[in-house]
Amino acid sequence: MIRAFKYQLFPTKEQETLLNKHFGCSRFVWNWGLGEKMKAYQVDKTNLTRYQLQAKLPIMKKTEEFSWLKEVNSLAIQSKLEDLDKAYVAFYRKKSDFPKFKSKKNKQSFRVPQNTKVKFDESKIIIPKFLEGIKFDNHRKFIGEVSSSYVTKTPTGKYHISILVEDNKIIPTKPQVNEKSTIGIDLGISNFATISNGTKVVNPRFLKIKLDRLRRESNKLSRNKKDSKNRDKQRIKLAKLHEQITNSRKDFQHKLSYQLTHDKQVDTIVMETLSIKQMSKNHSLARHIQDCAWYQFQTLLKYKCDWYGKNFVQIGKYEPSSKLCSCGIINHELTLKDRNWTCKVCGVTHDRDILASNNIKQIGLVQPESKPVESDFSCSLKQETADSLGQR
Ligand SMILES: [Zn+2]
After folding, report:
1. pLDDT digits over 1-53, tens only?
2. What is the DSSP letter of 276?
3. How many angstroms does the Cα of residue 343 sit away from the middle of ligand 1?
4. Which of 201, 183, 188, 193 shows the shortest CA–CA distance to 358?
C-alpha cells in the first residue's frame, strides 16, 4: 500500500536559495511548456507532446540565456512537463479549466521523481542536488520503499516534503455491503456532516471565528493599493491566517475520518460526488473554503476506508436528497432556510439533513452504478491539490 508522509524541512540559507531555484525553474518550465504548446496549436493545430518539449530542454541548457536550468535536478523540471500533459488531459476530459500560467504568488512546488532518502538517525532528508541532506522535523518514522516525493513552500515561507512510501502491507479485504452497517453522510454548512444514524457533527467554532477574521482581512487587502508595502504585509498576514485555518481544519477532519473508519458498527460509507469543476467556478471566498473543506474530507475518508478495510461508495450528485420523502414524494417548495418539513402526503416530519443523509445511504445501497470505489495513491497528490486550494 502506498502512503504519504509529510514533514517540515529546515533548510540552511544556501539550501533555501537552491530550493527556491528549483521552484523557479519548475515554474519556468511549466510556463514555457504551456507557451510552446499554445503557440504550436495556433500555428498548425498540432499538440506538442511532453517528449517533444523535453527534447528541447538539453538544447536550451547549452545556451547562455537558459544555462541556469542546469543548476537544478533535471528530473524535477521534466516532471513539470508530465504535469502539464495531465492538465491538458483533464481539460480535454472537461474535468478542469484550461491550464494557467503559474505566478510566484501561488504555492510553490516541485517533484522529486527519484532518489529521495530519509536518514532518521541524523534527522536529514537527501534529494538530488542536496546530497548533504536537509534537516526536517523527525516526528514520525516509516518503514518501506520511497517511490517519489514532492517539495512545497507555503506563502508564509515554510518548506514541506511529502514522501510517497510503499510499505508492502496488503490492503485489507473489504466486507460485503449490507444495509445494517451502512451509513450515508451529508456535508453541509451549519453542520459539517450529518450521518444517517442521526449524528450531527457541527463545524468547529474556532473555524468560524477564524473564517470571519479571514473575510475581514481579505477585504482589507482588496482596499490596499497595488504593489504597496502595506499590501505585501497584508498578503502575508492573510496567508498566515489561511495556514492556521488549513491546519486546524485538517486536524478536525483527521479525527473525524479516523472515528468514522474505526466505528465497529460501520462497514460502508456512502457520500455524494463533489463536483470540482463547479467548485472552481465559485468566487465567494466563504463558499470556496467550504468546498475545499468538503473535498479534502472526502479524500481523507476515501483513503482511510482503504487502509482500514471499509467500503466507500460514491453516488452521483443527487439534488433532491433533502427533498425526497420516504413515500416517494419530492417537496419542490423546500428552500434552504427550511430546516424541517412535513410531508403533505404521508404526514411524516423530516429534519432536512438527516433525511438527506438517509437518502444518500439508500441510493448508495440500490443504485447499480454506485460500486465501492478503490482510492489510489494519487489521493495524496490530490490532497496536495486540496492543500494548495485551501491556501490560495
Ligand atoms: Zn411522504
Report:
1. 888 899 999 999 999 999 999 999 999 999 999 999 999 999 988 888 899 99
2. H
3. 5
4. 183
Cell of 164: 510517497
Q: Catalytic site residue 186?
A: yes
Residue 203 CA to ligand 1 center (angstroms) comes to 30
Q: Where are the alpha helices (DSSP H) in 317-351?
A: none
Cell of 206: 474556532
Residue 71 among the catalytic residues = no
SS (H, E, C) 297-322: HHHHHHHHHHHCCCEEEEECCCHHHH
pTM for the model stands at 0.72
Active-site pick, 272, 291, 306, 387: 272
pLDDT in tens, 360-372: 999 999 865 555 5
CA 356 to ligand 1 centroid distance, Å = 14
Q: Say how many Å lie between the first and final Cα of the chain, rounded.
A: 31
Closest CA relative to residue 390, chosen from 294, 278, 254: 294
Instruction: Read off the pLDDT band of 380 (50, 70, 90).
Output: very low
* Mean per-residue pLDDT, 94-111: 85
- The residue among 374, 367, 359, 291 whose CA lies nearest residue 319 is 359
The x, y and z cell numbers of residue 296, run together, are: 479534502
Residues whose Cβ atom is located within 5 A of ion ligand 1: 325, 327, 329, 343, 345-346
Domain ranges of the chain: 2-166, 179-390
Measured between alpha carbons, how far is 273 from 271 in angstroms, rounded to an integer?
7
CB burial readout 222-253, b (16+ within 10 A) else e: eeeeeeeeeeeebbeebbebbbbbbeebbebb
DSSP E strands in 228-317: the ranges are 268-272, 311-315
Q: Is 137 a catalytic residue?
A: no
In a 13 Å sphere around the CA of 57, the CA atoms on its Cβ side amount to 26
Residue 42 burial class via C-beta count within 10 angstroms: exposed 0-12, middle 13-18, buried 19 and up: exposed
* Ligand 1 mean position, distance from CA 350 (Å): 9
